[in-house]
Amino acid sequence: MYVFNEPLYVGTIVCFSIIKELGPVLTATVITGRVGAAITAELGTMKVTEQIDALYTLGTNPVKYLAVPRFLACITMIPILTAISNIFSIFGGYIVSRYKLDISPTVYWSDTLDYIKIDDFFHGFIKSIFFAGIIAFVSIYKGFGTKGGAEGVGRATTQSVVTTLVLIVVIDYFLSALLVALKIG
Questions:
Q1: Residue 102, phi-psi category: left (phi > 0), alpha (psi -120 to 50), beta (remainder)
Q2: Residue of 16, 94, 102, 148 with fewest CB within 10 Å of its CB?
Q3: Residue 158 · residue 44 · CB < 8 Å
Q4: What 3 state SS string does the chain have?
């Protein structure tokens, strides 16, 4: 049934693709749609209702008060969420290979652990940090730049999500090339 002894490589291929590419990119995509949009909408609403101007009037720096905590939260939590996503994805790959492809658990896990190195985890971790920064920066920038009432908030939120998703794909390409050139993963 198997021509090239494929069962030996299923675990390795699943883990490589999840840890290096799919985990960071898909997690960033989901977070962009949920968290990035929420940050932009919240800050945009504060901007059009002049709450940010009120902070200036009170002598509070809105960037320090509103932007920095959101940026730090993204930088901290998105790599953690990516790690959790990777764990569940690899386990999902195991479930499919075990019960759909009838691959032995020993084959899946032993080959996975033989070929995956710590550098592979750094590859995905570095990407997730960059993606977190992109999500936070674009969302905050678009939120603070919102104009035009409720319609402007919707427009800024849409622009934020689309811009972030495009940047994630572009940065992923160049970051992958850079990390491979630097022999990280």
A1: left
A2: 102
A3: no
A4: CCCCCCHHHHHHHHHHHHHHHHHHHHHHHHHHHHHHHHHHHHHHHHHHCCHHHHHHHCCCCHHHHHHHHHHHHHHHHHHHHHHHHHHHHHHHHHHHHHHCCCCCHHHHHHHHHHHCCHHHHHHHHHHHHHHHHHHHHHHHHHHHCCCCHHHHHHHHHHHHHHHHHHHHHHHHHHHHHHHHHCCCC
Residue at 108: amino acid letter: Y
Rounded CA Rg of the chain = 21
pTM above 0.85, yes or no: yes
pLDDT 10s digits, 137-170: 999 999 999 999 999 999 999 999 999 999 999 9
Domain positions in the chain are: 7-180
Of the candidates 60, 59, 80, which has an alpha carbon nearest to the alpha carbon of residue 125? 80
Residue with tokens 């084959």: 107
Please enumerate in sequence order all residues whose Cβ is within 8 A of that of 23, keeping only pairs 6 or more positions apart, or say none: 82, 85, 86, 89, 124, 128
Token output for 120: 């592979």
CB 152 within 8 A of CB 51: no
